[in-house]
């Protein structure tokens, strides 16, 4: 078939593209648009990463602070160092190096002593773990009286010395026998650093709390009160001793903790910080001991302190592993495990004992801790009891000072109570007021009146059975000497009453001592009494029967005494065993409180060299002599005359070993009246007020040697 004539051929459709010029214009625009989009995407991603990092850091800090707060509130003690015996790899070095709350190279650490519990301590059904047989058996109804088991929880940083690449960790420490030492197995488990074997002692890994921390960014401060604003600087001072920090931590109740971390994310520096304050469980729980192996008790650390006037208090803290304690003491020392000791108690749940010692002596004590299998003695400790105890002065009386001896009281090894000192008063003096009060054990059985010197006159000082030392008659606020007062305590009971003649009788007022005599272990004869006088003519005999020959003086003695009112008398002590009136001023009473050494005394008397014209009175009386009894009391005797009486005149000199530590002022009798003699710390005996060339008596003068 032929095509129609005139038909047209159709051509393909025409399609136009981009010209080169168009491409050159559009391409950069597209590239810029894509670049801007990518930048936005990158920035948005960086922002998300930074925000996420900041959130993670903040969460880690808050989680860490929450754990720390919980542990602080359940802790009993803030520690200077871990108190658990470390088993490798529990130590800071994953070995046995201990932990310290502050360290120059290791930074701050928070070391908590916490109670072990039967379950999660935040659950009310959880109970404490009590140590077996300390002291009660687990089945005992009194098991709650046992020591509770404790563990250590430690927060510390590793790494982070110069950069923020450190990590804050939480570690739990337990003693090696923690599973068997208590009545139950504790819920808490000991932990070690990651990478350590969890098949042995370590039961779990340390808790990893915060990364990206410097050592300096974990800050721990301690406060003594919950609302305190000033931290205890000693507790966290690296330059302080461990003992000083430990002592400071004992008074701390509250901890302040700050954590600062920083990290780079998406090219940005991210930093977060947080802090808290928390108060521990019980401020009185600092003595709770750590768990230990009960098969070997720790040796107790004994301390000793003085309880006035002469008692040594030995004490020690409870020690791990002990079910009881034994204490013994002596005055000679020696090994705790041998030697001569007095056992105070054995295997008792007691951690203190008081030993009554003697002044100027040393008391030694030893304590051991024991259980059913073994025991351990602690190191011997000793306490030296001072020679004198200073009384608490009353009513504005106080130490005179200067060269004169300070006030004090003591008890000799024989049990004799001795006073010393020069005192004076400020303000207005009231007759009958109390100067000071002696403690129990240092008091007489009766109210004892003594002749003393006061402002250079004879005066009466009374020591009552209740311990009050009272200014009686003639006392002056200017000064009072206590140096002639000595007596036996109320516990002394070896008195023999004497029958009186020639009108003499016991006065019989409440508190009066009867006229009686006794000897003590230092061989002194002591006489006491408050007498209503009869005939007071010189030489009148008072006692109806003489003392036995062994209790008499070898030669007649003149001893000054006080009488009622303001009277001053002297009493004669005869070699025939009789006591007699010997002149002086008449009075309503005789206070016969004095002592002497009899013929039976076995010590040595030494005759003194007399100076400045003084000589022995006659062969009927002793010349001036001295001796020292077994308890250190220096005793003088003798009657002298004819010497220079000017105040300050040297009469004689006592040798070393027979002298007071400071000057003492002594009242005596001279020509039947009061007189004063002074004895210095170099032994010089000098004349003073009232000393008479007619005669001066040294009979009855006693004082305690201090050199």
List the SSEs and their pairings.
Elements: H1 20-73, E1 75-78, E2 102-103, E3 107-108, E4 110-115, E5 150-158, E6 166-173, E7 191-192, E8 204-205, E9 207-213, E10 218-223, H2 242-250, E11 254-265, E12 268-279, E13 303-307, E14 311-315, E15 324-330, E16 342-348, E17 352-356, E18 361-370, E19 375-377, E20 381-385, E21 397-399, E22 408-411, E23 417-420, E24 422-425, E25 434-437, E26 448-454, E27 457-463, E28 468-471, E29 480-481, E30 486-487, E31 496-497, E32 505-506, E33 516-519, E34 525-528, E35 530-532, E36 557-563, E37 568-573, E38 579-584, E39 590-591, E40 594-596, E41 606-607, E42 615-616, E43 625-628, E44 633-637, E45 639-641, E46 650-653, E47 664-670, E48 673-679, E49 684-687, E50 696-697, E51 702-704
Parallel strand pairs: 7-8
Antiparallel strand pairs: 1-4, 2-3, 4-5, 5-6, 6-9, 10-11, 11-12, 13-14, 14-17, 15-16, 15-18, 18-19, 18-20, 21-24, 22-23, 23-30, 24-29, 25-28, 26-27, 27-28, 31-33, 32-35, 33-34, 34-40, 35-39, 36-37, 36-39, 37-38, 41-43, 42-45, 43-44, 44-51, 45-50, 46-49, 47-48, 48-49
Describe this structure in words.
This protein has two helices and 51 strands. A hairpin with a 5-residue loop joins strand 37 (568-573) and strand 38 (579-584). Helix content is 9%, strand content 34%. The strands form 14 sheets. The protein has a six-stranded antiparallel sheet with strand order 32-35-39-36-37-38, with no helix packed on it. The longest helix has 54 residues, at 20-73. It is mainly β. It has five domains: 55-279, no CATH class; 303-385, Immunoglobulins (Immunoglobulin-like, Sandwich); 397-487, Phage tail base-plate Siphoviridae RBP, head domain (Immunoglobulin-like), CATH 2.60.40; 496-596, Sandwich (Immunoglobulin-like), CATH 2.60.40; 606-704, Immunoglobulin-like (Sandwich), CATH 2.60.40.
């Amino acid at each position: 078939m032929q095509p129609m004539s005139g038909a047209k051929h159709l051509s393909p459709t025409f399609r136009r593209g981009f010209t080169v010029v168009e491409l050159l214009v559009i391409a950069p625009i597209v590239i810029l648009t894509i670049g801007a989009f990518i930048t936005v995407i990158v920035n948005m991603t960086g922002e998300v990463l930074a925000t996420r990092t900041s959130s993670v850091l903040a969460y880690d800090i808050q989680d860490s602070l929450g754990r720390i707060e919980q542990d602080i509130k359940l802790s009993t003690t803030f520690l200077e160092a871990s108190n658990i015996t470390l088993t490798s790899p529990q130590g800071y070095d994953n070995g046995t190096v201990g932990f310290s709350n502050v360290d120059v190279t290791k930074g701050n650490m928070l070391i908590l002593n916490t109670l072990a519990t039967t379950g999660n301590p935040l659950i009310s059904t959880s109970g404490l773990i009590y140590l077996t047989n300390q002291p009660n058996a687990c089945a005992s109804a009194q098991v709650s009286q046992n020591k509770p088991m404790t563990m250590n929880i430690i927060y510390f940083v590793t790494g982070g010395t110069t950069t923020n690449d450190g990590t804050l960790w939480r570690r739990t420490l337990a003693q090696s026998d923690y599973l068997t030492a208590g009545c139950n197995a504790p819920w808490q488990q000991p932990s070690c650093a990651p990478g350590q074997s969890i098949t042995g002692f370590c039961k779990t890994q340390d808790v990893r709390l915060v990364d990206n921390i410097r050592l300096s960014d974990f800050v721990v401060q301690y406060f003594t009160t919950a609302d305190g604003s000033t931290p205890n600087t000693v507790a966290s001072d690296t330059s302080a001793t461990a003992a000083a920090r430990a002592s400071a931590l004992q008074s701390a109740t509250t901890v302040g903790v700050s954590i600062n971390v920083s990290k780079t994310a998406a090219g940005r520096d991210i930093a977060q910080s947080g802090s808290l304050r928390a108060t521990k469980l019980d401020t009185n729980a600092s003595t709770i001991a750590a768990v230990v192996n009960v098969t070997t008790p720790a040796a107790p650390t004994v301390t000793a302190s003085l309880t006035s006037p002469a008692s040594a208090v030995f004490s020690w803290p409870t020690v791990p592993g002990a079910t009881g304690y034994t204490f013994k003491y002596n005055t000679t020392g020696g090994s705790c495990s041998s030697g001569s000791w007095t056992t105070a108690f054995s295997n008792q749940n007691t951690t203190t004992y008081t030993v009554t010692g003697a002044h100027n002596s040393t008391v030694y004590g030893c304590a051991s801790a024991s259980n059913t299998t073994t025991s351990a003695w602690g190191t011997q400790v000793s306490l030296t009891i001072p020679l004198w105890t200073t009384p608490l002065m009353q009513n504005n009386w106080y130490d005179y000072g200067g060269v004169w001896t300070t006030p004090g009281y003591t008890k000799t090894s024989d049990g004799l109570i001795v006073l010393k000192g020069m005192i004076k008063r400020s303000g207005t003096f009231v007759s009958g007021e109390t100067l000071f009060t002696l403690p129990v054990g240092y008091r007489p059985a009766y109210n004892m009146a003594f002749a003393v010197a006061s402002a250079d006159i004879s005066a009466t000082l009374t020591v009552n059975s209740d311990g009050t030392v009272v200014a009686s008659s003639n006392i002056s606020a200017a000064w009072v000497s206590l140096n002639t007062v000595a007596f036996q305590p109320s516990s002394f009971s070896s008195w023999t009453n004497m029958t009186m003649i020639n009108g003499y009788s016991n006065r019989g007022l409440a508190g009066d001592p009867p006229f009686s005599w006794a000897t003590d272990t230092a061989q002194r004869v002591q006489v006491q009494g408050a007498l209503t006088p009869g005939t007071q003519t010189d030489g009148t005999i008072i006692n109806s029967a003489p003392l036995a020959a062994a209790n008499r003086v070898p030669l007649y003695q003149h001893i000054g005494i006080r009488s009622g009112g303001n009277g001053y008398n002297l009493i004669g002590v005869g070699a025939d065993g009789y006591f007699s009136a010997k002149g002086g001023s008449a009075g309503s009473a005789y206070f016969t409180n004095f002592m002497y050494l009899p013929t039976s005394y076995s010590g040595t008397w030494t005759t003194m060299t007399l100076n400045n014209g003084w000589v022995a009175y006659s062969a009927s009386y002793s010349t001036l002599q001295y001796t020292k009894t077994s308890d250190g009391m220096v005793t003088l005797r003798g009657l002298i005359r004819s010497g220079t009486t000017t105040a300050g005149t040297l009469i004689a000199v006592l040798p070393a070993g027979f002298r007071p530590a400071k000057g003492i002022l002594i009242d005596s009798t001279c020509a039947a009246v009061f007189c004063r003699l002074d004895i210095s710390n170099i032994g010089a005996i000098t004349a003073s007020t009232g000393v008479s060339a007619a005669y001066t008596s040294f009979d009855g003068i006693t004082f305690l040697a201090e050199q």
